[in-house]
Design a protein that fits this description.
Residues 19-87 form the HTH gntR-type domain. This is PLP-dependent aminotransferase family protein. One of its GO terms (molecular function) is transaminase activity. Pfam families: GntR. The protein is an alpha/beta fold. It has 3 domains: 3-84, Arc Repressor Mutant, subunit A (Orthogonal Bundle), CATH 1.10.10.10; 95-107 and 356-461, Aspartate Aminotransferase, domain 1 (Alpha-Beta Complex), CATH 3.90.1150; 110-350, 3-Layer(aba) Sandwich (Aspartate Aminotransferase, domain 2). The chain is built from 17 helices and 16 strands. It has helices at residues 3-8, 21-34, 47-54, 58-70, 110-124, 127-130, 140-154, 168-179, 194-202, 219-229, 250-263, 284-287, 320-327, 335-347, 349-372, 395-404, 440-454; strands spanning 74-76, 82-84, 95-96, 162-165, 185-188, 206-209, 212-213, 216-217, 233-236, 266-270, 292-297, 309-312, 384-388, 407-408, 410-411, 429-433. It has a 7-stranded mixed sheet, sandwiched between helices. A 3-stranded antiparallel sheet has the order 13-16-15, covered by helices on one side. α8 packs across α9 and α15 runs parallel beside α17. The radius of gyration is 24 Å and the shape is globular. The chain starts with a helix and ends in a 10-residue tail after the last helix.
Length: 464
């Protein structure tokens, strides 16, 4: 292999739908570092040589090297050339693997996208209307956008059933407040979304665990707990569940839907990760449209800053109670962000952005599986992992130790619902979120450090 060939061995072929080519070149570098085809200290080819090899102009390569340096992937050494940078450890800031947010989208220039989107909103909207009060639930245009967003999951949805809400947390709180009375139980799986647990506590409700198996919540256990607690509301996150990443199979979904219809239960189906699954089953709302409140937030699959979630109300159910509950603690969505979301859904930007995020999420899942070497994580999907710890660690001790080493993850205790002690796994677990890391490079380094820590014996357990 010639010297030039060795300098260029890490490059790949451009994807037609992979976004701007300068960003694809950065992705080539980042992927090669993650795969260890490029290592710290390796020299990159001169910009003119790379431009000629890839068939692009010099400006494109210059822009890609600048972006790669901004991401701390490269360092320039004057006349000596450009080299792969050594990993930088920021001792003043944690690497956040605790917050479930979508990763930076593959092949998308988000700065340009935001500028263009806001510009289009201002062109097509009355600025005075963007700066005044709006009724809860969204305008007819906002609801139509919500119906379009929900179509891949639910098929055709009457926009009159759709509410546009300022995020999933407020939607969940409004549903719990409107569908239960103080002191009532909300039934959920033994490990559930902390936001639901927090909302219930603040509203004076209790979340009670229902036994689950490998397919999710057990219908027989649910029926028993409904009778025991006289419960009317069930919370489920059936696709790439947070935190376990399990997906409820279609047969169990039909059983749960049939039980809800027979017992006249209401189900909150919190489904933020459905679009990340390569083969997600139909939602529960598809099987029981008159029993299920279907919640889909853009915070987990697009951008948290949009502060938009959609609720598909059960067929035939009035909306006044839910909207009244919503208005009691959050008067309205931010009009500018709602308008931007509506614009992006109607013009196709949201779908393109989500495709880039999904591509990046899948790439990060693959990197995590390879880095952690854990076969149990192979088909996790989504933007988080549920990692079992070696027997010598408790989840709380591991999280504390990881934090001391600049890594932030979440212990299983944060997800436990009431009455779960007898159902808890004997093996400690942590949730690792993959989206907050600024790059695949940063993520892989953080995961390697976590993996090394997991296999290190906890010093607190060593008898001297």
């Amino acid at each position: 292999m010639s010297r030039n060939d060795s300098l260029l061995a890490w490059t790949r072929t451009f994807a037609d739908n992979g976004g701007p080519r300068y960003l694809q070149i950065v992705d080539f570098i980042e992927q090669a570092i993650s795969d260890e085809r490029l290592k710290a200290g390796d020299r990159l080819p001169p910009q003119r040589l790379l431009a000629e090899h890839l068939g692009v102009d010099l400006t494109t390569v210059t822009r890609s090297y600048t972006e790669a340096r901004r991401r701390n992937l490269l360092e320039a050494r004057g006349p000596a050339g450009t080299f792969i940078a050594s990993p930088r450890v920021d001792l003043t800031q944690l690497v956040d693997l605790s917050m479930n947010i979508p990763p930076p989208p593959a092949g998308v220039d988000l700065d340009d996208l935001l500028r263009q989107g806001v510009s289009q909103v201002l062109i097509h909207s009355d600025v005075d209307l963007l700066m005044t009060y709006h009724l809860g639930g969204g305008s007819s245009t906002d609801r139509a956008a919500g119906a379009a967003w929900l179509a891949p999951m639910l098929g055709t949805v009457d926009e009159g059933r759709v509410l546009a809400c300022p995020g999933a947390q407020s939607a969940l709180a409004a549903l719990v407040l409107s569908q239960t009375r103080p002191g009532e139980a909300v039934l959920a799986e033994p490990l559930s979304y902390p936001g639901l647990l927090s909302a219930a506590v603040q509203l004076g409700r209790q979340v009670v665990a229902v036994e689950s198996d490998a397919d999710g919540m057990r219908p027989d256990a649910l029926e028993m707990m409904v009778k025991k607690h006289k419960a009317r509301l069930v919370y489920l996150n059936p696709t790439l569940q947070n935190p376990t990443t399990h997906t409820m199979p279609p047969v169990r979904r039909t059983e749960m839907a049939a039980l809800a219809q027979r017992l006249d239960l209401r189900i909150i189906e919190d489904d933020p990760y459905w679009l990340f699954s390569a083969a997600a089953p139909k939602p529960l709302a598809y099987y029981a449209p008159r029993q299920v409140f279907y919640v889909s937030t853009l915070s987990k699959c697009l951008l948290p800053g949009l502060r938009t979630a959609y609720v598909a109300m059960p067929e035939g159910m009035p909306q006044e109670d839910v909207l009244g509950a919503l208005r009691s603690f959050v008067l309205m969505s931010t009009p500018l962000m709602t308008a931007l979301t509506t614009q992006w859904i109607h013009d196709g930007t949201a779908a393109a952005l989500q495709e880039g995020i999904r591509t990046e999420a899948w790439a990060r899942q693959e990197l995590a599986h390879r880095t952690l070497g854990d076969s149990a994580l192979a088909n996790a999907g989504g933007i988080h992992l549920w990692k079992a710890l070696p027997a010598h660690w408790s989840a709380a001790d591991f999280v504390q130790k990881a934090r001391m080493e600049g890594l932030d993850v979440v212990a299983e205790d944060a997800f436990r619902t009431a009455g779960v002690d007898g159902m808890a796994s004997r093996q400690a677990h942590i949730r690792i979120s993959l989206g907050r890391a600024r790059s695949r490079f940063e993520l892989v380094n953080a995961l390697r450090r976590l993996n090394e820590l997991a296999h290190r014996r906890n010093q607190r357990q060593v008898v001297v």
